[in-house]
Amino acid sequence: MRVLRGDVVRDDLGDLPLFSGASRSEMAVIGQQLTKLHLPAGRVLVQEGAIGSEFMVIVDGQAVVSQGGHLIATLGRGDLVGEMALLDARGRGRRNATVVARSDVVVYVGSSVEFRRILEAAPSVAAKVRQTVTARTKPQAA
User: What are the residue boundaries of the structural domains of the chain, listed by start?
Assistant: First the structure.
């Protein structure tokens, strides 16, 4: 695994829609919280039913989401993975889906503590996370 921190992190983070509204000082905090990882196709990023302890933002590549063995979505650049479990009151809820890398992926990963720090430091990011969660939990029309 290749891990990058500091200025290299902030350079491509600002290109992601999740962080596009963050100020320079907020980006400095965000960059300090995240670790960049390169993961192979087929890697399970999160497992349905498991306790969540981290979140990811996809920088490059694709991942597929399934619930109960049924494919429900494909994720790509800029999409969040694992955030819903971290919004549990204790910050470690159960995963509601399995996410598997469809291709090699590059992700930024952070712990539940780092996730909370980002949400507290960057209100625009917190608002986008809430929008994402609302969209993912909204009942689908039949």
Answer: 7-137
Q: Considering only CA atoms, give the Rg of the chain.
A: 14
For 30-57, what is each residue's pLDDT tens digit?
999 999 999 999 999 999 999 999 999 9
Query: Do the Cβ atoms of 61 and 108 come closer than 8 Å?
Result: no
Our CA angle for 48, 140, 54, nearest 5°, is: 30
Quick: pLDDT tens for 73-112.
999 999 999 898 888 766 678 999 999 999 999 999 999 9
90 SS3 class: coil
> What torsion, rounded to 10 degrees, do the Cα atoms 69, 73, 76, 78 define?
-110
Using CA atoms, how far apart are residues 77 and 126, in angstroms rounded to an integer? 18
Q: Residue 37: name the closest of 17, 64, 18, 63 by CA.
A: 63
Task: Give pTM, 2 decimals.
Answer: 0.84
Give the residue carrying structure tokens 């969660």. 133
**Class of the domain covering 7-137:** mainly beta
